[in-house]
Queue: 3 jobs
Job 1
Amino acid sequence: MGYVILIYDIPDDRVRHKVSERCKDYGLDRIQYSAFAGDIDRNRREELMLRLRKTLGKKDGNIRIQPVCSRDLSLAKEIIVES
């Protein structure tokens, strides 16, 4: 397994919703409006990217999966302010 961050910028609401549902199907957790993260092995990561490519089709958009090593993950910081 490997930790990844998946981010996307997709203008079409319908396509953007489908992409977010695919991410959830693969066990990724939403961390921002257009960002997901979680553990996924290499084969599932490749499968997910193929499915997302098909989902995006010819619509405008950008989808990126960025692996994060455990050392860098341990250095992560987060600020959350909720009112």
Note: The first helix runs from residue 13 to 25.
Job 2
Amino acid sequence: MNDKIRIEMEAAAFRSLVKHLQNRKDVQNIDLMNLAGFCRNCLAKWYMNAAKERGVEMSYDQAREYVYGMTYDEWKSRYQTEATQEQLKKFEETKSLHAF
């Protein structure tokens, strides 16, 4: 497999992940962090950093809007629930495994 095909496949997989997360509004970011060590915000930061590495200006808000499929404030008001004490405890316990 050549680099062009590999990059196209990686991009397609990334788009599929973003679409999946946009469709799974029931899945809270804290649950993603607790289980996988990353969340939609992490994905947005990676996307923003990749843009900047390529000389493309992109704000964190713009990157989050791409990942969420709407503004973060809109997603938060519509779909985010308050974290439970159990979720917060697990978040602290797994903090060393979270993405940077």
Note: The radius of gyration is 15 Å.
Job 3
Amino acid sequence: MHLNEDPLKKWGDDELKYWIALDLCTGCGFRAARLLLVYERFETMKTFWHASASELRDMGGYPYVLGWIDETLIEKFIAKRGEIDPDTLMAQLQTAGVRAYPLAHPLYPFTLRNIHDPALVLYAKGHLSMDELAHGVGVVGTRTPSNYGQKLAKDFARELGQAGVTVISGMAVGVDSLAHYGAIEAGGRTVAVVACGPDICYPSSNKPLYAKLTEDPKGLVLSEYFPGIKPEKWRFPARNRIISGVGQALLVIEAGKASGSLITARQAFEQNRQVFAIPGRIDQPMSEGTNRLIADNMAQMVVNLDEIMKSLNWITSTRPRSEPVVLELFGSERDVHELLSNEPVHFDQLTEKTGLTAGPLSSTLTMLELAGIAERLPGDWYVRK
């Protein structure tokens, strides 16, 4: 099946279990991009999973696409699949209360799909829908924040949550946990990307937070690891690319010069994500990393939420819905919205300042009104909502 066909076609358990089985075929060299080519060419993973050695050789001969399927890989794959029962994996997934989203699934985050090394399968535990990750910001920082860092982490996460932005972090102690709690307190959405199966709480001291993430309608625990897989040291730097890759930006709050948060920041920078950093005192070790990111032009210095929202071309609307919705503005809509404020501006003034003629300007203002972020007053005056 090609990605532009019926989005949810063939995504029952019968197809899903073979993606999961292939995800657990460790040592076979099945990188995500390669298996996506298989899926594009052969329509189902079930066909690939059950292919004979001769059929696999024929696949390997398909010009310019699957030449990586050589005799060594075929032998490894056939031996490995004999050890794996896809039906058993599905049963384990359901017992753990975990959902799975392979790379080709329509609900797999589009931002993550386009990074250099996307996860082949994402495993999710919690109630938040995957399509609510569209506007997300990663928030990371030191595990031992100062009082200043603690306040910033909760305040910024709370404001992001109130603005309708999904807060993404790693559930580690320190800034990560504070960011999750800030979003939760604001009634906002928050996602923890973990370095183990999503059914495992790590660190164990975060059980109250884990419970909130998995039980709250706006929480989610996300991982590239199958349920039951334990955390190991090497998995943490690997998962950082997902923290930065799922969102559209990354905010770094207090990080020392050797902080793992700087790894996440570099990955975000390489993924063409907007990186933000909050400056700190130059004589404080916990500010050395964030200040260096700013000095090296790897991060934009920010001191409030408005700077983040404006840099991303995001605005917040609370109308017509009852909860905040993040809107992304481009072109004339963005230009006109920036000219509006709490003080009324007349239509003729907007025509002069924007250079737009009456027709296009009227259409733009109508769109802003429908989005709930502008209001027309009597006499053709307009204000920002």
Note: The domain at 329-384 is CATH 1.10.10.10 (Arc Repressor Mutant, subunit A).
